[in-house]
Design a protein that fits this description.
By secondary structure, the chain is of the alpha/beta class. It folds into 2 domains: 12-109, no CATH class; 119-364, Rossmann fold, CATH 3.40.50. Helix content is 39%, strand content 18%. It has helices at 20-30, 56-59, 128-139, 151-165, 179-193, 216-244, 265-285, 303-316, 320-330, 339-350, and strands at 35-40, 52-53, 62-63, 68-71, 74-78, 82-87, 106-109, 119-123, 143-148, 169-173, 198-200, 247-252, 290-297, 361-364. The strands form 3 sheets. It has a 7-stranded parallel beta sheet with strand order 10-9-8-11-12-13-14, sandwiched between helices. Helix 6 runs parallel beside helix 7. The chain starts with 19 loop residues before the first helix and ends in an 8-residue tail after the last strand.
């Protein structure tokens, strides 16, 4: 698309419109995603009596900026530098055939997350959801600072990110229950990259135990691992984000913060504190351009979920396959989530598109939560 303004107000025969079939193929190629239609740099218009805003395009399930004008289904005027039109892909067969064409001055492509060149800290990133999250950020062009307890696995994830996506990486193995280690890691990340944009505090879940079998040591360890570590990460990254007037913190807990699971009493209790922290910090730092949200996965295809199901099977003296089948029947989508699906939610919350979302807990649980 050229930088010069284009006059789209000529006769219909002179309008260069994207063929319906080409648009349909573009939708099919991208798959079940939101599609971004960007209209750039146009300022040609029909006389006022011949234009109408939000014409047939609005009927075509398109959300249109109020400064876009259309005539008989063709875009004729956009007075802004960049207008985003988001199209929903739940389309019935023949939908394109029955609707007006989209102007040729549009581009159909993937949504830009605005994360290219930013720096994302992802804790617990050697496996499972943490690993998937690290690679999802790398796929968006973000440089990575990765930590976990196992250096070998961390280095493998970092090497994968560098080779596949060409990003820079920084890794360090330590236990996030150690406050000084967390603080030192954040500072070394800032020294390495000169900025910290995104932080995903994450740690393994506590053991599954009935309440009366828990010990004070269990509670202390869970507090250190799953709440105190998040507090320390937030204390360490927020000053850097304030100086940049931009930042994203996305904590990782569990859907049990909304719907407790009986044998996860330690997780149910301590991780609920993370929700309180997120809500409190979101109110304090929003004017600094910082959003703070929480993601609560349900049962996900990870080693952690397998361990929990193995414990259930052992306690009931039944096969693991039976316990998993029973669980999946209770999940409305009929299966556990994939780590990549949780990671996609985290990346979206870190994106420019989610800049108005803060203080929220987003569940990725296949519909398991039964509350309103």
């Amino acid at each position: 698309m050229g930088g010069d303004d284009q006059d789209l107000a000529g006769a219909h025969g002179q309008h260069a419109a994207v063929a319906h079939r080409e648009a349909q193929r573009a939708f099919e190629d991208i798959g079940n995603l939101l599609v971004l239609v960007a209209v750039l740099g146009h300022d040609g218009a029909l006389p006022q009596h011949q234009t109408r805003e939000h014409g047939p395009l609005a009927i075509n399930k398109l959300a249109i900026d109020e400064r876009v004008q259309v005539f008989d289904g063709n875009l004729v005027k956009a007075r802004v530098l960049q207008v985003f039109v988001v199209c929903q892909l739940s389309l019935s067969p023949g939908w394109f055939d029955s609707k007006p064409a989209v102007a040729a001055s549009t581009i159909i492509g993937r949504m830009d997350t605005g994360l290219k060149g930013r720096v994302a800290i992802v804790a617990g990133s050697s496996a499972g959801i943490g690993r998937a999250t690290a690679l999802a950020f790398a796929a968006e062009g973000a440089h990575l600072a990765l930590c976990a307890r196992r250096q070998v696995e961390l280095d493998q994830v970092a090497a994968d990110a560098r080779s596949r996506f060409g990003v820079e990486t920084h890794t360090q193995a330590f236990d996030v229950a150690d406050p000084s280690a967390v603080q030192a890691f954040v500072e070394s990340t800032h020294a390495r990259f000169g900025r910290v944009d995104v932080c995903v505090p994450n740690a393994g879940g506590p053991p599954a135990k009935p309440f009366l079998d828990t010990t004070l040591e269990d509670w202390e360890r869970t507090w250190q691992l799953n709440l105190r570590s998040t507090i320390i990460f937030c204390q360490a990254v927020l000053p850097h984000m304030q100086k940049q007037n931009w930042g994203r913190i996305i904590t990782l807990t569990s859907y049990t913060v909304k719907q407790p699971v009986p044998e996860l009493i330690l997780s149910n209790t301590i991780r609920a504190g993370v929700m309180g922290l997120v809500r409190s910090l979101a109110g304090q730092f929003g004017r600094d351009g910082i959003t703070i949200n929480n993601v609560g996965p349900g049962f996900t295809s990870t080693d952690r979920s397998r361990s929990l199901l193995e414990t259930r099977a052992k306690n009931r003296n039944v096969p693991l396959e039976q316990v998993q089948s029973e669980l999946e029947r209770e999940i409305p989508i009929g299966r556990m989530a994939k780590p990549e699906e949780v990671a996609a939610t985290i990346v979206w919350l870190a994106s420019e598109s989610a800049a108005s979302i803060t203080g929220q807990t987003i569940l990725v649980d296949g519909g398991s939560y039964k509350g309103l």
